[in-house]
Amino acid sequence: MARIVIDTNVVVSAILSPDGAAREVLRRCLTGKTQPLISNALFLEYEDVLAREELFATAPIEPEERAVLLDALLGSCQWINITFLWRPNLPDESDNHLIELAVAGNAERIVTGNVRDLATGELLFEGFRVVTPGQWLREEDRHGDTDDQDS
């Protein structure tokens, strides 16, 4: 099972765009087809952003439903304790926690809509790649076909 870090912008996109790739990434996490990783910093960011009424003014779900969605997502996540900080690394300091989570949790991918900023750190890590939701889905579908044939 793939181990991924899901950037907050992917969760927001999944809520705002019902037919997008981000929604399918979230669906695969909620159905147990992939293992999302979570840390204290990412949890707090999810909680903060999902509570922003102005961001979700046109969203098809109400605040209570966003809270239920967050609870379900957290229920599918593996909690990772971060014991080493890789800072400063990225141009936007507030994104470093995603790199730290990927390293500490042995993630295969960071799934984000912000590939450019996350892939331009001072430190480069070979253990994971930074990809968009669409890229991740294409990679997973290719690997899934291979995995099914091996069974």
Give the second-level CATH assignment, the architecture: 3-Layer(aba) Sandwich
Q: Assembly type of the shown chains?
A: single chain
Mind telling me the CATH superfamily name? Answer: 5'-nuclease
Instruction: Please write the string of helix (H) and strand (E) elements.
Output: EHHEHHEHEHEH
Strand content: 5-15%
Low-pLDDT segments, ≥5 res? 146-151
Provide mean pLDDT, rounded: 89
Find the count of extended strands (DSSP E, 2+ residues): 5
CATH uppermost class: Alpha Beta
Number of helices: 7
Tell me the strand order in the biggest sheet: 3-2-1-4-5
Q: Characterize the main sheet.
A: 5 strands, parallel
Shape: globular
- How far is the N terminus from the C terminus? 14 Å
The structural domain count equals 1
Structural class label: alpha/beta
**Radius of gyration from the alpha-carbon trace, in angstroms:** 15 Å
Quick rundown:
This protein is an alpha/beta fold.
3D structure, described in words:
This protein is α/β, with parallel strands linked by helices and 151 residues long. It has helices spanning 8-16, 21-30, 40-50, 63-76, 96-104, 115-118, 133-150; strands at residues 3-6, 35-38, 78-79, 109-111, 129-131. It has one domain (3-150): 5'-nuclease (Rossmann fold). The protein is 50% helix and 11% strand. The chain has a five-stranded parallel β-sheet with strand order 3-2-1-4-5, with helices on both faces. Strand 4 (109-111), helix 6 (115-118) and strand 5 form a beta-alpha-beta unit. Helix 2 packs across helix 7. The longest helix has 18 residues, at 133-150. The protein is globular, with a radius of gyration of 15 Å. The chain starts with a strand and ends with a helix.
